[in-house]
Amino acid sequence: MLVNSTVIQKIMGEKVGRKVEVGEKILLPLDLVVMRDFGGPNVIKKYVEKFGEERPLDARKIAFTFDLHLPARQIKEAENQKACREFAKKYGIKVFDVNNGIGQHTLLENGMIKPGSVVIGTDSHMNLLGAANSFSTGVGTTDIVAGMRFGKTWFKVPETIKINVEGGLSKGVYAKDLILHIVKTLGSDGAAYKAVEFYGDIIEKMNLAARITMASMVTEMDGKISFFPMNDAAKEELRKYVSFDKVYNADGDAEYAEEYTIETPSSPQIACPHSPDNVKSIEEVEGVEINQAFIGSCTNGRLEDLREAAKILKGRKIKEGFRLIITPATINVAREAEERGYIKIFLEAGAIVTNPSCALCTIGHPGVLATGDATLSTSNRNFPGKIGKGSIYLCSPAVAAYSAIKGKIADPREVL
Amino acid sequence: MRGKVWKFGDDIDTDQIYPGAYLTVTDEDEMAKYAMTGVEGRENFADVVSKGDIIVAGKNFGCGSSREHAPMAIKKLGIACVIAKSFARIFYRNAINIGLPVIELKETDEINEGDELEVDVHEGVIKNLTTGKVYKAMPMGELERKIMEAGGLIEYLRGENEG
User: What does A129-167 look like in DSSP terms, one character per residue?
Assistant: First the structure.
């Protein structure tokens, strides 16, 4: 039935029980509807306004993930979180409260996402769950309210871009550098309304953390979702969190809107102010003075990311007066980082380690910038005003860690 | 609909449309005060626009976070529709879902601040009354039109459920 289909066509087709055509608008049943501590209060308000005391269709298919203001710093944030908790309690909805970490990662680690899951959430980086072979996407309040009450919403079956990656990643060059290079190549709207499928030897070998890094930044070229080959290694890694039978890979004769062949970059890549597609090789920006670095976020906050930072920071000190802020993605990541000694390394180096959250991805977290400040960030966006007045350079955890020691943008390959 | 143009550039992200500092606001009418105020030089936007005015922008309007505050603030401010070369995906669907008309038009460079436009949203016909030029944009898709006509996604799905 589902022949010559891309991955997104397969997942959507399975849900509606027939082959879906590109460009078609369909109502799709939802497996999970997720809201955060920001976004959540607007959802509740609108839900009550529209439906009063009517119950959500299926409370088991709804979750709150608090990941922005952890724990609340302002009364307004506290009130909002309280409202979410009370609403959840009333209808028996699961809350991943302030001691968990970033929503998508928390859902994944708690076995709530599996291949083929259709998920909507109030987070523009929901689509990083494409790394788990799920169609997850960021939406606004109205979609969430509709999804809670009716269990479905509308989608356009998107075209798919096929990206073949050629070449390997040498020491000091990571999935983050590759995806920054790809965002530069396609541009900030290069995948608008489209799904992306990644292929190539290096992609086949990528672990879940690296795939998540890539998938999260597909949003920065306005892509709807991205997928990776679900080979045996990928299935095995995902089975640590959830059991499943079926995975979704494209057919050999699937049709693509565009096809790119992209060579892996040979050196670390940096997205310069003020757009994620303003990407330069580290050689072009080495030596730029910075006074802060952030390691974390849904893009680079996993154990593998912290491990790379720990390798560099072990036995070294960050520059005096420099602020290095490190935030594990989830409580599980934090616990494991602690067990492996990474947290001790960070603290001894002079870093500030914060509790798991989205952290410095928004202005709502300690560490905002003053006028003229410049920061490196392993996050995914460097728009003006995103975390204060200064400028933001996006990079890998290794670049952020080594630059913290030097107090300027520096190439970690010098010590790796 | 007929209205005066306020002109914006490319890649106007949701932090510029609705600054992150006001994300804790849940009152939709209050959101209107902050519409577009993150754009340099538009800090007093809410004070200078009139009901029925039109926003015209470049490519990738509404990129960035999924906040529905962005289209909601624009709608509540009384902006009649947004015309851009292209829209970021989430902004586009949020706008449809709340009933804010959005139109994709390649030639927005030819439209200037202060021009008077007459817009037929369903047919995608835009007349620039100031320059005399007429443009034909992509008409809205059938499902989007039904959602807009129902008054938004929730009203549409409720109708589907009951029908």
Answer: GGGGT-EEEE--HHHHHHHHHHSEEEEE---EEEEEEES
